[in-house]
## 1
Amino acid sequence: MSPRRRDSESTAAARAERRAELLAAAAEVFASRGYSATTVREVADAAGMLGGSLYYHFDSKESMVDEILSTFLTDMWAAYDRVLGSGLGSRETFRALVAESFRMIDTYRPAVVIYQNESKHLAQSPRFTYLADSQRRFREMWLAVLDRGVLDGVFRADLDTGLIYRFIRDTVWVAASWYRGDGPLSADEIAGQYIVMVLEGILST
Amino acid sequence: MSPRRRDSESTAAARAERRAELLAAAAEVFASRGYSATTVREVADAAGMLGGSLYYHFDSKESMVDEILSTFLTDMWAAYDRVLGSGLGSRETFRALVAESFRMIDTYRPAVVIYQNESKHLAQSPRFTYLADSQRRFREMWLAVLDRGVLDGVFRADLDTGLIYRFIRDTVWVAASWYRGDGPLSADEIAGQYIVMVLEGILST
Amino acid sequence: MSPRRRDSESTAAARAERRAELLAAAAEVFASRGYSATTVREVADAAGMLGGSLYYHFDSKESMVDEILSTFLTDMWAAYDRVLGSGLGSRETFRALVAESFRMIDTYRPAVVIYQNESKHLAQSPRFTYLADSQRRFREMWLAVLDRGVLDGVFRADLDTGLIYRFIRDTVWVAASWYRGDGPLSADEIAGQYIVMVLEGILST
Amino acid sequence: MSPRRRDSESTAAARAERRAELLAAAAEVFASRGYSATTVREVADAAGMLGGSLYYHFDSKESMVDEILSTFLTDMWAAYDRVLGSGLGSRETFRALVAESFRMIDTYRPAVVIYQNESKHLAQSPRFTYLADSQRRFREMWLAVLDRGVLDGVFRADLDTGLIYRFIRDTVWVAASWYRGDGPLSADEIAGQYIVMVLEGILST
DNA sequence: GATGAATGAGATTTCATTCAT
DNA sequence: CATGAATGAAATCTCATTCAT
């Protein structure tokens, strides 16, 4: 490996790392103040630079959310696809998907919050059609899992699967809005209890 | 009753009705575009008037959300208080509160959506301290119901009540974001299925 | 004519008149400082309002030049078309077109200056394709007139018509950059002398 | 001559050459996009470097145009002065000045374009007073030539010399905006035809 | 009650310029 | 010499709000 090669690698890597840092700062602010209510200046403050300086790294405020969301969704689908491809039964697929979702919340909390709060509005813009696509695919994935589970006799047949789907979806993702990595329960513990609640209900038997 | 009195009554009533119409339009727009992303002009368009004209009726954009949210919350607490004051058991109180919440979603859908999406940000302003108050009271109410239910042996003791509380809260209110009054299921039917899911789980037994 | 009708007429007319006033101010500033060197604030100052207020009337700085140029070009082509449609001979067509051009300079001086200085740059943007179209049509018009004149024996055959065309085009329009309506010579007098110079040359005979 | 001296000479020469290259690139961009509309980054792109790097060579964007224009004007006046000092008659002086001007366009096309488009605006700044000076001197030179020619009986006496001056000035320089060195006609051929047109007119006799 | 024009604060974005490496 | 990141001033544009009519 020539020094030249190492140089260009390290600068490209440094660049990517800087972008990631800035996006992390931006995501935090977007998540806590709301995307359209946060000013570019606030993002820059959080990143320790001046407003205009962000434009050296990003085209626009919009391109920041774009990168935040698309990075998250790409990773999320990779994780889901691993689960779906591993040949588990209905019940285990269910567990694994919920657990994976909580791991996503753990890793990408601000991105998930932004996704929850803004994707409906953003999706109207042509730049963000992938949000609607992701949502559609998400729905199809869950309905497939649930329908298979009903046929298998794993899930109850007396409930509307569309309703169950929404129930799970909301239930899982909204956790991002209150989850703190530094709380008493780890992501996996929370996932575990959620799974129990959803599968068995909260009634004592 | 003098004609004068009748006049002022009818104009006062007409005035209130006009306000309500305008607020309904505003709520719809705030809910669909997001509060800080919607312009006063958009609200005015939806109300069939020009931007400046809204200021005859309202002090500010902020006072519109304020009135939207406080009207909704006042009504919601009246309903909850009726339930809490009627001496039901844990299980029935649970059912009734969830059912009441779905009725709220049915009646105040846009307000509920705004509440979901914006209350965290708005609550920072002194004008909206009642939002945080409401949230606190809401939490206390549910924890009381759940704790009593655990003591009664109605609810499982092996789950974190804080987690159950959040589970229910999110589960119920997020429904506002997809609920349409004109869908196939009525509010009460949806509430019924939700209650079954939450109480008994989705596994077949 | 009902008062109603007169009202709506007068407000629509007032609106159009205000736009025209503002565009006149803008054109003056664009012409003297250059389009991209003049700030919206300078235009607003010239119009006696604040920067933001211009956006009540116009979408953008660009839409101002757009309207300035397209208004001018529309009128110019109407005038040229009248000339071309009136069945004059080569020499008289030539005279009439040059005279009409000077009249345009008289009426639309700032617009003509802007056209001269900025159209090459602006034409790159898709919004301003009509500028290139106009230029093409202009070239075809003059070449037709000149070619016919050469065939008629009115114009010399020993000169490149393409060169004559450019000679005339530049010669005529650049006058906008120094012409003042309040100078000693009227537009028609200047046109007269230009025509003599171009037709007969500056040598004494 | 010491090696040291030779070194510094060669690096000074290299330095000057690099400056010239960069200025050539800058002039091209300023000419095609307009001075104030082109960004330093665009100049740098054209020069194959990054924006900041230009500041190793030049103080500012302004000093670039400054050097471009002053180099051109210095050379132009040297050429004109040679003509004026060579004792030619009115007609020959006329011819020689026009021919020299077309040679300038050939050599300094982008600089001439910039001069045409921007000098009026730039001249306002104290740094560019030499532009106004040059223009004044140019006017005096031509009026002297024309007035002498009228007295000599070479030029027509029935035309306003001020008008002829402008006619010639515009006619000649605007050619820079369309002239391409690689076109079918050489600079001297174009100059020849222009001279004929201006002197004898375009009418056949 | 509503309109239409304007205000003015502030948001996003641009860009010439600087400077450590 | 050149890079890449940052600065900071200023530009374009947005929008809640005001107000005369």
Note: Chain A has two domains: 1-58, 62-205.
## 2
Amino acid sequence: MTINATQSANIANAIENWFSTAARDLPWRNEDTPWGRLLSELMAQQTQIDRVAEKWTEMIIRFPTPLSMAESEEQDVLLLWQGLGYYRRARYLKEASEQICREYGGEVPQTVEELLTLRGVGKYTAGAVASIAYNARKPIVDGNVHRVVCRLQNQGDYSVNDKWTWKMASQLVDHCDTPSKLNEGLMELGATVCTPKKPKCEECPVHSMCSAFQNGTQLEVPKPKAAPQKQKEFHYAVLFKKQNKIALEHRAGKGLWAGMWQVPTIESSKKLTKKEIGSHFDVKQHLEKLGTFKHTLTHKMIEFHVYECSEYKKQLDWYDTATLHEFPFANAQKKVLSFKSLS
DNA sequence: AACTCGGGGTG
DNA sequence: CACCCAGAGTT
């Protein structure tokens, strides 16, 4: 199923006009540069825009240019990324800044093809930077655009795939006036009007051309994705303190909480006894429980058990508690640290 | 094609 | 509680 040129132009123009009056006041729209846009797009992957806005300003102040980030330490990028999640993105961003300096003379490249060579930049982000920062006539499809075009065409099949959605987005951008406005407007519409649960169809600039609206199927289109089942895990975190120092570990560069720091923690698929925990750290006693909490991720439900220990035989790396703010922690480990006053 | 990567907002 | 979010990389 496709739409013709006239329909595409009508829809695109209506969205562009709506966007010119309804655009939210977001920081990267006021201080609009390709580097700022690349930053915002990478931070916004799978992350709601309101949560990105606050952090973006800190990021652009600390790293105003690709070079400033390329010359910094990865840890400095992770520090500003704390709480945003998907920490691999921060490591990729650092890599991308180095690529930009090494291969593109310090300027964010302009074409989709070049942008795709950057670490962490896929089809969506490449199209977004090319079209929004440089006004290239290239389509983009994110979760918002997917929902908007599915509803426009009342496309509620499970079989609807990326290819179909990208073709729809292509037809719209091919017949719009200003690609940057159309693409950003499509996403804005999905984020603020054509929302998943309670769409505000009466406010929508294209409801008269929306097949789902005409059929009253807005809430059935598109079909929801199957939620991954949550695996239960048990993490045992131990606060080892020695005067004004605390033991910390640096997590691996891949996997969960990549590159972040933590207090010594055991990860297990089943419950462990106090004896097993003590055995792991080679301490026989002085292991005192401080509490537990649940930490839920998209595909995991983790039960955290927090201990403190005044005995230490295992090789541990000690750091001054006064420098804790220099280490990036994911939220779960921030909760762990909050169980004890460390100042 | 299915998994793995966070954490919070929303209904 | 389920579902979603300006997705990308790996297997």
Note: The domain at 231-337 of chain A is CATH 3.90.79.10 (Nucleoside Triphosphate Pyrophosphohydrolase).
## 3
Amino acid sequence: MTELISLPKKRKGESTNWWEEDEQDDFSIQKWKSLEHHGVIFPPDYIPHNIPLFYDDEAISLTSEQEEVATWWSSVIGTEWETKEIFRKNFEQNFLKLFGSDHQIKSLDKCDFKKIAEYVEVQREVKKARPPEEKKQERESKQKLDEEIGYGIVDGKREKISNIIVEPPGLFRGRGQHPKAGYIKTRLRPEDITINVGKSNLVPKCPVPGHAWKNVVHNNYVTWLAYYKDPVLSFSNVKYVYLAASSKFKGLNDKLKYEKARKLKGLIDGIRHDYFDKIKKDNQVNKQLGTALYLIDKLALRVGNEKTEDEADTVGCCSLKVSNISFKENCQITLDFLGKDSMRYFNTVPVDPNVHENLRKFVEGKGPDEELFDLITTSSLNEYLKTFMKSLSAKVFRTYNASVTLQMLLGKFNHKNMQVEEKVQFYTDANREVAILCNHQKSTPKNFEVQMEKMQDKLKDKFESLNLLETHLKGFLSKKIAQNADKKFPTSEENTRKAIVRAKTSIKNMEIKLKMKDDNKTVALGTSKINYMDPRITVAWCKNNEVPIEKVFPKALRSKFIWAMYTEPSWEF
DNA sequence: TGAGGTACTTAGGATTCCAATG
DNA sequence: CATTGGAATCCTAAGTACCTCA
């Protein structure tokens, strides 16, 4: 077997890699012994441009704070945010508050941001048009800064930090119908930040002169380096600063996640047996538990925690409403609801007859806004799962089903002689099936249609030149001089044959590309690759089939999954 | 048992990068 | 050499899960 992945050399008797160590178990209790880092840094202060806002054709000069917020709005103009009702309404309220009730500015509709918007546009152009050396220098100084403070030291090992710059101020872009979309996200100061470092390690210096961190703690039961209250959702949300995906903290948890899913694989037959039991003959609560778990297992639904009034109204399995389900003939149901990120789940599937009957009963006598599963909660469902395995919870089913599906699909591969590109396409097809199972979507790229047409045209051209080549070849065969004997056509029969082969592969590749593009129009492949499919399945498959790993895992994924790179070709999920 | 808090994973869109193309 | 479009990465919102406390 060729070694297709370049790996750090292992030294005899010395193991510096966490995934080769034995002490992974106590990670669940104590995460580290020493932790050292440079804290967080803050986005640059706002620099005013002193361009006025016009109100009833009158120039209004703004304070720096008002101007900054007005400038945010200016860059929203022309995007769909500008006309999004909640966003606009919330912004107006927030914005007017900055002026006070006796100020003449009383309505967003009458505000004219044109001059500021022009300025924003010009600045954008200026930034884009910077000379390349300047851009390069900027990039380099950014890298240097990152090199200096973008790393922490955990138990003596240098680790990348994922987010050292705290979130800049701006307008809150909540997704879907988020009740707080358009709120002002205020600027964070050192006084908002709690720092976590080792007791005997240096406390990071506050980067803003004359200011100080809110607090410094030494909590080694957690993996975060710092946290702050979210400026918009401060009542509930906390933002953490963590190490990057390549770190031991993240990698080890990731590995444990997949190991848990593999354990579920060993139990799944018993679990399915048990929930079918519950579906059939138990009391109402158990009927709901069994039926909900059936949907989670079969359709890879999220568990669906309750949400508060201050969030977009989305659902998962346990929070499904009567209006989200409809019943079709042949034991089919249609689920239609907005899930995480307000992405629509819309699917018609046949279900087990008992499930179908249960669901019909759950709906009986309820209004459209009432809960389908009114007798259970996500906690009670997870409690039920704990009876099978102490660390089992609903989300493990998504991981398990995604990984099992990938393993099964890749297991069908038996085309070792394929071109690498075709092998990659096979992999992508499997990836897509998983993504569809998990309902990972993306919006159709802008001017997708135009680009498809362009590619179609190109393909047509390629067919035409293939035709010409074949005619040219016939010329040789009938011993006539080909009429295209000039310029761009090959001068020998052999070369013509070669050119034909080249043209054919080129057409084939183009067709593959075209099909992939269309198939992937609305399917997001990345999410399942990053979060759901055990990377060892992919690594083993690549090794077995001589596909270089970088064809399927870009750099960031190779370092995230460094622990999986040593997987043996014979490994199975 | 339910609400709120905490810590972590998962998610799509925006932005940036980079290589192919004219 | 500039443009452009797809891939890769960045950003931060939005989930899950579990704990504590009344």
Note: Residues 162-163, 167, 172-175, 178, 230, 233, 237, 239, 302-305, 307, 311-312, 314, 316, 339-342, 378-379, 382, 393-395, 445, 451, 526, 554-556 of chain A lie near DNA strand C (CB under 10 Å from a C1').
## 4
Amino acid sequence: MKFTNRQLDIIQAATKLIGEKGIQNLTTKNLAAEIGFSEAALYRHFKNKNVIISSILEYYKDEIKDVMFGIIQDSTTGILKLEKIIEFLFNRFSSNPAIIMIVFAETSFQNDIQLSEQVHSILKQKKMVFEQVILKGQNDGSIRMDIQKEQLATIFMGSLRLTVLRWRLSNMNFDLNKEGDILWSALAKVFIK
Amino acid sequence: MKFTNRQLDIIQAATKLIGEKGIQNLTTKNLAAEIGFSEAALYRHFKNKNVIISSILEYYKDEIKDVMFGIIQDSTTGILKLEKIIEFLFNRFSSNPAIIMIVFAETSFQNDIQLSEQVHSILKQKKMVFEQVILKGQNDGSIRMDIQKEQLATIFMGSLRLTVLRWRLSNMNFDLNKEGDILWSALAKVFIK
Amino acid sequence: MKFTNRQLDIIQAATKLIGEKGIQNLTTKNLAAEIGFSEAALYRHFKNKNVIISSILEYYKDEIKDVMFGIIQDSTTGILKLEKIIEFLFNRFSSNPAIIMIVFAETSFQNDIQLSEQVHSILKQKKMVFEQVILKGQNDGSIRMDIQKEQLATIFMGSLRLTVLRWRLSNMNFDLNKEGDILWSALAKVFIK
Amino acid sequence: MKFTNRQLDIIQAATKLIGEKGIQNLTTKNLAAEIGFSEAALYRHFKNKNVIISSILEYYKDEIKDVMFGIIQDSTTGILKLEKIIEFLFNRFSSNPAIIMIVFAETSFQNDIQLSEQVHSILKQKKMVFEQVILKGQNDGSIRMDIQKEQLATIFMGSLRLTVLRWRLSNMNFDLNKEGDILWSALAKVFIK
DNA sequence: TATGAATGAGGCTTCATTCAT
DNA sequence: AATGAATGAAGCCTCATTCAT
């Protein structure tokens, strides 16, 4: 196990707080109150607040990575993998909106060099995964080859992110899964050879 | 004029601070120090800090809007308009990276309802502009019609945003304009009928 | 003239501010806004804020003193003088409630030794006036002699002050003049021989 | 217990500060210094400064109420109750002058609607207690009946308050208990049938 | 493991006042 | 006579963190 139960409690509570009002809402006071114990107790489980944030990032990175690798291995063609991934992600965000602000948190941690680098590294890693999937798709003939995998990955991730962001900003007042379907039917036309 | 000179000084200094380390770096103390006067002096020019942030958002909204409308009217086909816009934006961000964190600041203001709505409204407005441009492109035959303008706008804005974000996170260690060209050649293939 | 016109404007505006929300509401900013000019302008007319407060105290001391001396000389018996005075005062407070907080401001200026002494001196002076009136009443046979003038003055002033205070605290939601009449009919029974 | 020990420390220190120089002297900085810990520590014991003030008011309201009810039940006739009460109050103020500014603080909180109402409500409650005592005195024949209990209460409380106020303004340079006796002998003559 | 108490640093804001124009 | 700009001091409050119990 990477985290103790108590640490998982904290990660979950922190996710909720960030999901509600952004990182500025993640104070030790709010966090302790959300969990239902004292602020001091937090320091039994994590060295400091930055380690908590860092752990949150790791936690969701792993969680999403695991599912994505499952999808990648199960699906046959590259284009199908992308379809399954987008389906999973929109579903995940839809059922747990709080994690959106963490998964797309790149701009939130400029403050702190170490967190900023961690966040950048996670983004690069995700991009590489998508590029590999797209490359396979180009090789298996399901994805067009006249556009480089890097640009297709940018288009895929970028439009996905923006759609999810709009959903958050609208206070989730449209059906994200439906919007995801519509986006995918557009992306599919764009990606197919 | 919408703002006094001193207000423009403050907006510029605030932009710099946010550009460097995010909104958490925009404190009254840092801001006053950046401008070179006392914290109290800020309050002669703006009612409070939220009004400063709000003004920054308005300022860059207007600035970018003006140029975009110029481009929209000058260029002939829809696809050319998009090309000019992307060129302008990458150039703008490249020459003044600080504004990136403001123009893409949507996640930064969840804290504050009013700012959050302002930021959402700006995003919606931008999306509509892109949709109109795309619609014209579809009517003039320069842009494909088998994908709805809304989805094309999402693809356009999303991939543009993600590219710029990666540049920031990489500490601007690649040539944003060149990357913009590459992205555009991909998008062009995607958009053309 | 003791004060210039501009100084009288300032005294009047300050009275209004204090009347509305107490001395804590008398800030240079509020005062300037109330008058309709700049804060800096205040310093053309008064050396500083304490001098303004001091002037307010003097102004109303004089104003009330003048009327009271008129009453004292006009009326015949001591008891009639008291009646006229109480009538005048309740009428004055009723028509201009703002001055109540100034005329009864003794607890407001503890902060500042000089103002505190000024306020004490005004109170002592008022008390002496009432004692003289009562003494005359005792001599002319209209006021009982078995209680010392000092105690009768305390009873008179004290009950008057408390009645007016209650009126202010109730947001002036009863008829002060009527309540003054009722109080006076009680006091008259108490004072008469 | 209504308050923790630390809260009582804070109430006591605040009382002292207000007693010395009025509410304007009750700043978080002064208060923390008086107690001997940091400003931040205050906020572990009270939510904010207004709650501190509110607590002070409650504390002394209760304290005085308890004693007064004891007196009311012990004494026989109405007039005797009044005598005991005045004796107790002058003694209390004499031995702890700081609380005077709190018990007579009605004009100090106009600034704040909630405090202002609290202070008004306390005053009304006290008035009612005195009116009840007086009513009993009128029924048991010890207090005159030709003046309404409301007016007698005003006379009683008003003259008491003014006497105490004069003592404070004079920097306590006369013997308050002795002055209380003198006042009472006057009031007794006034109240007795 | 947990907490109550405490704190230094810093947050935003208002205060009365000054000064050049 | 008046003002716009500025300021040092101070206001209230929250932050992340520590430590003794």
Note: Chain D touches chain C at residues 20-22, 24-25, 101, 104-111, 116, 119-120, 123, 127, 146-148, 151-152, 154-155, 157-163, 165-166, 169-170, 182-183, 186-187, 189-190 (CB under 8 Å).
